[in-house]
Design brief:
The structure holds two protein chains of two kinds. Chain A is α+β, with helices and mostly antiparallel strands. Chain A has seven helices and 26 strands. The termini of chain A are far apart. Classes of the chains: A alpha+beta, B alpha+beta.
Chain lengths: ~375, ~80
């Protein structure tokens, strides 16, 4: 029997809604069948926690007197992008220190400091104009200093990601981590069953305005993310939330050896079980969620795919490639992803986290293009 | 009691592991930094790193050979050499 958002929200307000996490939905459908689960369950919660490089925050700095047009802005020596209005900037999580790029501290670590309540050193230089005469400002600031601090992540929550391996005879350092030679290890992204978009792969309920768990606080989906590629199963989301309500347990810096810096971001989405098809998509087990084992030994854009692999195999921590047993590890925290789904479940059970239909759903057909042109490669 | 997880069991600081490993450095874990991703586990060929039934990363010092591979890969710099 199909349900409506209104019916589910009424049950949430009355604290009568039945909410379970995605892993429990898999087990329930297996035990009781799809029809029973579709009728019984109102909401399935999901979660993911991984390095999401396409993340950052818009920060608005209160103007001193006289005011400054803030042409150069940095926090603890880490530059923020200015290119908008006088006191706005964007602090990206992969941004490294201006003078000490070898430091394993970046924009993500700064966001972690800010949501932890710590102070950071703000440094501002301006060109000085008639309306903004100020030219320099140095001050210790914290999250409360900013008028607005908005986490706005252009690409989060990939539906799935690849398992990276290295078939060459030398170690390679990638955004998927250190890959040992001769298939001595592999690393994979994504959390399979718990992954938000895997539970609604046709985006019936996820789109502009969907309320979500983001970094420990409440956020919203803004729409499809950059490089959204739904037809290949690599859909993703643009999301935003108030940094001031976030928690360093679910938003913290990351350093990837010989590659760069990033940020772990916690993201959870509730899926209302409006119909049988949503019940079905929320019950797909890890055995049926497939991704690719990809050889990262080459620096080419189109890396060779060695085989398909299920998340069940990946989560077993060993896969077989070319007849060789390869130990694999996750770049996402499955325990934290599960914790996020459970927190979201509690929020909804408490009666004040309501669901709504998206104002606009995500594209199911847009293409992810490449560029064919010559590039210069530094061989040093 | 420290922040370090030392064994895969509920007995974090067993007498046996302390006596065996107090004379040399071994891998230690700063729990407050660890996000339990398990990224490090795939690099350890000796079973010294694992997620326990409660999904917490634990270091089994008695299995560690100090190869240092895991130190290099932790994105949170939560692993370190210590006594």
């Amino acid at each position: 029997m199909p349900k409506t958002y209104e019916e589910i929200n009424r049950k949430i307000k009355e604290k009568n809604a039945t909410i379970i996490i995605a892993e429990e939905m898999v087990a329930l459908v297996e035990k009781e069948g799809l029809e029973y689960a579709a009728d019984k369950i109102d909401v399935v919660t999901t979660g993911t926690f991984g390095c999401m490089c396409s993340s950052g925050a818009f920060l608005n700095i209160p103007q001193p007197n006289p005011p400054i047009i803030m042409d150069d802005i940095s926090f603890d020596g880490i530059p923020a992008y200015h290119g908008g209005a006088a006191a706005d900037c964007y602090l990206g999580v992969t941004q490294k220190h201006d003078s000490y790029p070898e430091n394993e501290i970046g924009g993500g670590h700064l966001l972690e400091k800010l949501v932890s309540g710590e102070t950071v050193s703000l440094s501002v230089f301006g060109r000085g104009t008639d309306c903004y005469p100020g030219t320099s400002l140095q001050k210790e600031v914290n999250l409360d200093t900013f008028n607005q601090a908005i986490l706005l992540n252009p690409r989060n929550g990939y539906q799935r990601y690849v398992c990276a391996v290295n078939t060459s005879d030398k170690t390679v350092y990638t955004y998927m981590g250190k890959l040992l030679p001769n298939l001595r290890n592999g690393t994979f992204g994504g959390v399979g069953t718990l992954s938000p978009l895997n539970n609604d792969p046709t985006y019936q309920t996820i789109g502009l305005g969907t309320p979500i768990f983001l970094g420990g606080g409440i956020g919203h989906v803004m729409g499809e993310g950059t490089q959204h590629s739904p037809q290949s199963g690599y859909g993703n989301l643009m999301v935003k939330g108030d940094l001031k309500g976030m928690d360093p347990e679910f938003l913290c810096g990351a350093s990837i050896t010989n590659y760069g810096v990033s940020c772990f971001v916690g993201l959870g989405i509730p899926i209302p079980i409006l119909n049988d098809s949503l019940a079905k998509s929320c019950s797909i087990p890890d055995e049926e969620i497939i991704t690719s084992v990809v050889d990262y030994s080459t620096g080419t854009r189109d890396r060779p795919t060695l085989r398909d692999v299920s998340y069940a195999e990946l989560k077993s921590r060993e896969i077989k490639v070319d007849g060789k047993i390869v130990p694999v590890s996750s770049t996402s925290s499955i325990p934290k992803s599960r914790a996020i789904a459970k927190i979201l479940q509690k929020w909804i059970e408490a009666g004040d986290f309501l669901l709504n239909a998206p104002v606009r759903t995500l594209s199911t057909h847009c293409a992810f293009n490449s560029m064919d042109t010559e590039v210069i490669v530094n061989d040093e | 009691m420290t922040n370090d997880k030392e064994t895969g069991t509920s007995t974090r600081h067993s007498t046996q592991s302390t006596s065996l490993h107090s004379i040399r450095s071994t891998i230690r874990l700063e729990e407050s930094l660890c996000v339990n991703c398990g990224w490090c586990i795939g690099y350890c060929s000796y079973g010294a790193l694992l997620l326990d039934p409660l999904d917490n990363l634990v270091v089994r010092a008695e299995k560690c050979i100090n190869c240092g591979l895991c130190l290099d890969v932790c994105p949170r710099n939560a692993l370190y050499l210590g006594k």
